[in-house]
């Protein structure tokens, strides 16, 4: 979604691109620039309504021309992002607004499938998910769940047999089922 560019003043920096991508750790924001002559820094801003923005973080200008920043705690639903490009004299320009749909049922990634030694990592943007693991025979398996980062959980099985299982994620009415192979 392109909501336009707002300019406070002309800056000695040209924004070539500003893009986003959903990754296993959240939303990665990438931008490229040219002609960075007196750029002080870039402030990343985030909003839930495309009207009121809050600072997400900042990155110093380096004249390299390629930057990235990961929002490790995106909101469920639509997230709006923009860049505030700040000159050394503190004049600033705002980029176009980009929108990212971070829907709970569409965004999750599992790694180590198959699992190794009955342990695997799950990435999900669900809030306080409940995990259930069921063998294809119908037997529920005990899991130990440890939250290791913002959207990352380490799941460890006890007394399991190798085979195909269904991992169920539940949170706030959202249910996701994923087949996994446990070795």
TrEMBL record:
Highest rank taxon of the organism: Bacteria
InterPro entries, per database record: Secre_tail (IPR026444)
Domain Secretion system C-terminal sorting residue range list: 113-182
Name of the molecule in the record: Putative secreted protein (Por secretion system target)
């Amino acid at each position: 979604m392109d909501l336009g560019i707002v300019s406070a003043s002309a800056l000695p920096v040209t924004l070539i691109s500003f893009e986003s991508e959903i990754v296993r750790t959240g939303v990665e924001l990438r931008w490229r620039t040219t002609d960075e002559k007196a750029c002080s820094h870039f402030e990343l801003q985030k909003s839930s309504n495309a009207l009121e923005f809050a600072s997400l973080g900042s990155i110093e200008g380096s004249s390299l021309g390629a930057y990235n920043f990961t929002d490790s705690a995106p909101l469920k639903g639509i997230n709006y992002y923009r860049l505030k490009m700040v000159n050394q004299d503190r004049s600033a320009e705002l980029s176009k607004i980009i929108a990212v749909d971070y829907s709970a049922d569409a965004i999750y990634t599992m790694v180590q499938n198959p699992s190794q030694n009955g342990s695997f990592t799950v990435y999900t943007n669900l809030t306080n998910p409940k995990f259930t693991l069921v063998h294809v025979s119908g037997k529920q398996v005990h899991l130990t769940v440890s939250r290791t980062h913002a959207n990352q959980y380490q799941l460890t099985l006890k007394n399991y047999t190798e085979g195909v299982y269904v991992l169920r994620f539940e949170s706030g009415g959202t249910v996701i089922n994923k087949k996994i192979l446990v070795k």
